[in-house]
């Protein structure tokens, strides 16, 4: 998403939109009239299974946890709750819009950024579509703090730090166990720092994108809120496990996740391929939801330790400022040590008394077999002797028992050796 700094003036948009919005809040996810500066057009659906889902394979953890009972706050551009993979009743809560004036919900989106983040966290699997979220049974709380992620010229838009802080505090007050912040900036704003501290003190696991401003690897850039205490900072990798160009480097990078050409949900029901640490962060947030559902007794800090301890080693080695602990692993994060109880003691071995009758029977069978063997040998030997007698005795009588002599061997003439010869070789 955009950098966090002073707001842009949108007085014209707000003046045109505020009155009808206050009078008739929307009942569904369609943007209210005048709420979107330039709504992103619909995207087609994509059936292919994306590489990130193939690599992380979060469904392996689903027999143990699907994220049920965990509320994940998406502090972003809103969430299109009408998307077919997000419209199951109870999945996307109404939330709140802190960007526009009035008591508006956050369950609409003008640019798809927040919808894409929410989809990676918890989109339902549906037949014929390869994409799905990491924790499909988690509840999503949309907290809208911006209407766009980039400006008309492609520049990153600035977001009011107070609006971001209000959104974070609201998410913590609503009981969010995971708060996803797919936003980053170079400045340390006390109001956001205090809001993060507020959320962490309420046992919310705050996950933040590391940022996409890295030009080369010669230096390290600051990044907030990823660098705040208690925040889990997320960098991005591509399909080959290499750092995504632009994914920032620094001590705030605790872990990495897919962030290059990852597929996700868009507003108005479609899908799109996206890049950036903004979309790596929700893979970690979804995994945190799986863990918090499977291990509800763990604190946010303990869940963080578990995510880092079970990460897959990455290219930079463990603890590098580019890759952190490695690539998030949903299956290991949920299942490692799933049964914490010690194995039960085996009962003491008690030898059974021998079966005398069975042993005696076995001894008789062995004796019978040995007797039969020797009888067979004796009979065979007698047959051989009788055969020899039948042949030798008649011949001896005919010769009157005189010894016989073998015929002399004829003497062969000496072979004539050929003369020495010379061969061409």
UniProtKB/TrEMBL annotation:
Transmembrane residue ranges: 374-393
Secretion signal span: 1-29
Catalytic residues as annotated in Swiss-Prot or TrEMBL: 76 (charge relay system), 113 (charge relay system), 278 (charge relay system)
Gene3D superfamilies reported for this sequence: Peptidase S8/S53 domain
Domain Peptidase S8/S53: 67-326
Membrane-topology descriptor: Single-pass membrane protein
Example of a GO MF term: serine-type endopeptidase activity
UniProt entry keywords in alphabetical sequence: Cell membrane, Hydrolase, Membrane, Protease, Serine protease, Signal, Transmembrane, Transmembrane helix
Protein localization: Cell membrane
A single cellular component GO annotation: plasma membrane
Claim: Membrane is one of the keywords in the record: yes
One GO term of the biological process aspect: proteolysis
Pfam families in the cross-refs: Peptidase_S8 (PF00082)
Protein family: Belongs to the peptidase S8 family.
Protein name: Type VII secretion-associated serine protease mycosin
Organism of origin: Amycolatopsis eburnea
Name of the gene encoding the protein in the UniProt record: mycP
């Amino acid at each position: 998403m955009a950098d966090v700094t002073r707001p842009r003036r949108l007085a014209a948009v707000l003046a045109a939109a505020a009155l009808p919005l206050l009078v008739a809040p929307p009942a569904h996810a369609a943007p209210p009239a005048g709420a979107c500066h330039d709504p992103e057009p619909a995207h087609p659906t994509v059936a292919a299974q994306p590489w990130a889902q193939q690599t992380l394979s979060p469904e392996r953890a689903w027999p143990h946890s699907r994220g049920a009972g965990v509320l994940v706050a998406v502090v972003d551009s809103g969430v299109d709750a009408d998307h077919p993979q997000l419209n199951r009743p109870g999945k996307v809560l109404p939330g709140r819009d802190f960007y526009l004036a009035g008591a508006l919900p956050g369950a609409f989106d003008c640019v798809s950024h927040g919808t894409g983040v929410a989809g990676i966290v918890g989109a339902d699997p549906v037949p014929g579509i390869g994409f799905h979220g990491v924790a499909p049974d988690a509840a999503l709380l949309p907290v809208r703090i911006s209407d766009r992620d980039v400006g008309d010229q492609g520049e990153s838009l600035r977001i009011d730090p107070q609006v971001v802080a209000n959104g974070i505090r609201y998410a913590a007050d609503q009981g969010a166990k995971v708060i996803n912040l797919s936003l980053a900036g170079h400045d340390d704003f006390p109001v956001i720092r205090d809001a993060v501290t507020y959320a962490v003190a309420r046992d919310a696991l705050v996950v933040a994108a590391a940022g996409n401003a890295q030009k080369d690897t010669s230096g390290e850039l600051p990044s907030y809120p990823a660098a705040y205490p208690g925040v889990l900072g997320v960098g991005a990798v591509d399909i080959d496990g290499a750092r995504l160009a632009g994914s920032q480097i620094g001590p705030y990078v605790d872990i990495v996740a897919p962030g290059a050409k990852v597929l996700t949900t868009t507003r108005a029901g479609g899908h799109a391929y996206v890049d950036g640490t903004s979309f790596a962060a929700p893979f970690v947030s979804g995994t945190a939801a799986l863990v918090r559902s499977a291990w509800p007794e763990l604190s946010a800090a303990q869940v963080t330790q578990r995510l880092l301890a079970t990460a897959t080693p990455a290219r930079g080695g463990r603890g590098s400022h580019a890759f952190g602990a490695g690539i998030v692993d949903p299956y290991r994060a949920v299942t490692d040590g799933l049964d914490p109880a010690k194995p039960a003691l085996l009962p003491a071995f008690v030898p059974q008394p021998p079966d005398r009758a069975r042993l005696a029977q076995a001894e008789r069978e062995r004796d019978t077999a040995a007797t039969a063997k020797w009888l067979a040998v004796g009979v065979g030997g007698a047959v051989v002797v009788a055969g020899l007698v039948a042949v030798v005795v008649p011949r001896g009588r005919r010769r009157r028992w005189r010894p016989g002599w073998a015929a002399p061997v004829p003497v062969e003439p000496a072979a004539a050796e050929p003369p020495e010869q010379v061969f061409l070789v």
